[in-house]
Design brief:
Layout lengths: L1 H20 L4 H24 L8 H25 L5 H24 L2
Helix pairs in contact: 1-2, 2-3, 3-4
Length: about 110
């Protein structure tokens, strides 16, 4: 849960800086923010949440990358579909609920199995 919270904090902080402060379009701010959170996610989940060991396995890294690409697509699609109709921060909240769940389940069942 702590890793998920940290990843979400990184994601939201980056999104707020990119979209809210720098004026980056919401879809692209979403991709960049999620990507930053992903970098933290692999290391923290591997070593702490799922205690997968310190050895970095190619197959595990590949599964993680595939999962994260899928989650990036979900986040981008969600922002692209919703941002025109809703406030981008509301969209981000809705997208975060989905992507946090997908990330945890995907890591638990697919990446660090």
């Amino acid at each position: 849960m702590i890793v998920g919270f940290a990843n979400t904090a990184i994601d939201w902080t980056a999104f707020t800086l990119l979209y809210g402060v720098l004026g980056v379009e919401a879809r692209f701010a979403q991709i960049a923010a999620q990507s930053l959170a992903m970098a933290n996610s692999y290391i923290a989940n591997k070593l702490w949440t799922f205690r997968s060991g310190r050895e970095f396995k190619k197959a595990e890294i590949l599964r993680f990358i595939l999962l994260q690409l899928f989650i990036l697509c979900v986040g981008y699609a969600g922002m692209a579909l919703l941002a025109g109709a809703l406030n981008p921060y509301i969209c981000k909240l809705m997208i975060s609920a989905v992507t946090v769940a997908l990330n945890y389940l995907g890591n638990r069942l697919f990446v660090f199995k």
